[in-house]
């Protein structure tokens, strides 16, 4: 039974001090004819013996192309067999695989940070044309020989491998698979004897809810043990779990035998060989059980650090190796963890800590509410105020008094409702609202994966709006935008400018006309809860 907001997983299951490659070798020897992977869409089915053979062949091919231990290889694109193949092939050869996002629109700071020597991707996925995107940062590829790229923008990049096409300056994946001969296979076997489970094997970029991407660097030991301990606990095909990229990633996980409440309201209990505690994010002191605070984790699973970023690594990993997750959570007397929200999302209103997720969860129980996002807005009196943006269900209407009555005695009571005036729709800067002492919401989603320039124009030029004025005014019933559909909560800019994704029916028409046309469908309602 837990008495403090601190838990430690059992030590009964020993940690594995092996590399990813060693685990594959042993599994292929034990279960050579068992299916390892099935990619139904691509018609790919591999046994462990077949998979190991192709992994070794690909690893030898990478060595033949000139890659060596410690080099970084970027894997860019959707889930495919070749992604798994390259993950294990790079691990066998001591090369570090860098995971790039499917919809990344440019090879920017991420690739600069890690210095990828090679890049692997398909010709396209849906609307993404990867080769064309590469040329934006590396135009030299078109006039280069395969393996001989010399880029001013990406100076470390020399080799590009394509999965399903062969375009100028690139190798085809088949060429890589055929490049390694017996000498490269011998080189691979010798190299494998030098690998340590504590060396990096994977870099995954993470930015959380704020900040620029950071390259979380994971070791063989991180990944192997996390996978093993998850497997030891997993007893059904679907399971609730919690983790972060920086923790390999899973740290809390439920048991198949957990009761309904634990399965639906918690993320489970701590995994073996892992510790967790809850501290007050302001004082750094432990909090009592069932009291919200920042969740911190320690154990084998904690990453080596952010690649080439010592300063930000020190911000999140203490001298005694506690990783600060940035998540607000509680621990109960049985060691089960509840995730409440993010530290950076926490609203401090008149000295009181308010967690947006708790209010959002409550408002979601209203029968007319489809989606809701709660954010903090700057206030001269209280420091911050609570603002809820609500999107109603189709065909529903809801008056301010309905929301007030629903919230009364349970959460913050909405006292102010404001209808967005049509006159502000053409406003593209916040300066015109200075006299009204308004809180401004800007809609800024430059990273949305839309390819049509007109759609980009709509997304990036949606006007700012007055959400809260100095006096109370009536508002019309209707829907409101929410950022929940993107799974993100974004705060951007200097003066707490909060960015919320608009529900707009995008079409290639001028921005002002498109936004005006979409207003009746939105029926925008903003509630500022005092």
From TrEMBL:
Q: Give the InterPro entries listed for this entry.
A: AMP-bd_C (IPR025110), AMP-bd_C_sf (IPR045851), AMP-binding_CS (IPR020845), AMP-dep_synth/lig_dom (IPR000873), ANL_N_sf (IPR042099)
Q: Which domain of life, per UniProt?
A: Eukaryota
Q: Which EC number(s) does UniProt give?
A: 6.2.1.2
AMP-binding enzyme C-terminal domain residues are 358-411
- Domain AMP-dependent synthetase/ligase, which positions? 24-229, 240-307
- Extract one GO molecular function annotation from the record: medium-chain fatty acid-CoA ligase activity
Protein's UniProt keywords contain Ligase = yes
Q: Name one Pfam family in it.
A: AMP-binding_C
Task: Spell out the reaction equation it catalyses.
Answer: octanoate + ATP + CoA = octanoyl-CoA + AMP + diphosphate; a medium-chain fatty acid + ATP + CoA = a medium-chain fatty acyl-CoA + AMP + diphosphate
Q: Which UniProt keywords apply?
A: Ligase, Lipid metabolism
GO BP term, pick one: fatty acid metabolic process
* Entry function: Acyl-CoA synthases catalyze the initial reaction in fatty acid metabolism, by forming a thioester with CoA. Has some preference toward medium-chain substrates. Plays a role in adipocyte differentiation.
Q: Which family does it belong to?
A: Belongs to the ATP-dependent AMP-binding enzyme family.
By what name is this protein known? Medium-chain acyl-CoA ligase ACSF2, mitochondrial
Q: What is the lineage of its organism?
A: Eukaryota, Metazoa, Chordata, Craniata, Vertebrata
